[in-house]
Specification:
167 residues
């Protein structure tokens, strides 16, 4: 309906509301919300102040590349990778598979960042908005489904407790 500058201002306000509402309801911040809020305020603020939409267009790439750094860095910090920390309460996998997943997510986030820049520099703003909204979401959905199919082969069934028949 409006231009990218109005959308950027709305994004900044919405991010502030989301982070504040979460704080009010849970009395804690989610790292993801805070990272997104900071990047939205910095890149969105630069977009509005300098009237240059390139800053807000770079935000998805920066976020995705920060995620890639976090995923790859997690392999060297602590005993579990980031994906294992997030998912190990829900499934049991061999360590080698956790490593594969962590690397896959790292590469996926790098690829998303590159894809975003490709669209930014080769297409108009309307196409970029549609790609950011539908393309990145679609790619993520396809990646998660592919990852699920890959992981399904390796999931170990939890050990069941033997029933106690002493009555």
């Amino acid at each position: 309906m409006y231009d990218i500058y109005v959308a950027t201002a709305v994004l900044i306000i919405a991010s502030l509301i989301q982070t504040s509402a979460h704080w009010i309801m849970h009395r804690r911040f989610e790292k993801m919300h805070v990272i997104t809020l900071v990047l939205v305020c910095v890149f969105g603020g630069l977009t509005l102040m300098l009237q240059d939409e390139m800053f807000i267009k770079w935000k998805p790439t920066v976020i995705n590349w920060l995620f890639a750094v976090a995923f790859i860095g997690s392999q060297f910090i602590g005993k579990k990778s980031l994906i294992q920390r997030m998912m190990s309460d829900h499934m049991v996998l061999p360590n080698k598979i956790w490593l594969h997943l962590n690397i896959a997510w790292t590469l996926f986030f790098i690829a998303l960042g590159i894809a975003n820049l490709y669209v930014v520099y080769n297409f108009d703003t309307e196409t970029w908005v549609n790609f950011k909204l539908f393309g990145l979401l679609g790619l993520t959905f396809v990646f998660v489904v592919a990852q699920s199919l890959y992981v399904a082969r390796f999931i170990k069934e939890p050990q069941e407790e033997p029933e106690n028949d002493s009555k």
